Amino acid sequence: MIRLRPILPLILAALLSASGAMAQTSGLIRLTDRDDLFGWEAVGRVDIGRGGFCTGVLIAPNQVLTAAHCIFDKTGRAVEATTIRFRAGLRDGVVVAERGVARYVTTKGYDPVTGMTAENIRRDVALLELAEPIQSALAAPFRLHGGGTKGQRVSVVSYGANRDKAPSWQRDCGLNWRHEGIMQFDCNIISGSSGAPVFARDGNRARILSLVSGGNWKTDDKVAYGMDLPALVETLKRDLRAGPTATTVNTGFRRVEVGTTKRASGAKFAKP
Fold first, then answer.
1. What CATH number does the domain containing 236 carry?
2. Which among 66, 89, 200, 245 could disulfide-bond with 209, CB atoms 3.0 to 4.6 Å apart, if both were Cys?
3. Family, per the entry (predicted)?
């Protein structure tokens, strides 16, 4: 049996700096050309405010999944939905499609103040509703994968520090363990990779197994943490339908009145 308590000290701290050498790490493929990007167009960069960004992925023409901590600033305040933009398939200044965000919901129980606790990793999901849908012919949304077993091979498409101009694809990494709603992967992630989809193959199409919440990239034994998604996403979709229209909302149907020029915190990564 895997115990969560021993890993908690490893995932409490944030590490936001990055080395330029990471972009050249073996196993990462830069999706520069349009042909390289084919099939991954639904993955994009989520730009928050004046400089923060994370990674996001379409699960419907007007819905994007990303990490919940991405849409809170460093003080724990929710950012205005109107300051968020989703740039699908962004590569070297060219996008497949770009849309603003009309509103969003976060998972009930997520606490932006307490940082990367196990409870927060389990709930580190936000669902963004785009102001206008992106046609599936431009970027086909991904479906969720409901499984996840130890040793399963997965892949990750993400943006990150010093590799924010185009997505990087790690075509093969593994699921180390899964326990009580948390998964650990040996995938190569970095600041900005928060919200990046972890894909598992299902027939001829990749499906979203998890989202990157954070991890540790400073040591040789790189790890990333994610969460079980299906139940969370169903609840977020229901909450989005029930919430007020065209405004930032939080799970529990409470209107969030915010106004801040603080930069979003971006990805959080653990020190060894």
1. 2.40.10.10
2. 200
3. Belongs to the peptidase S1B family.
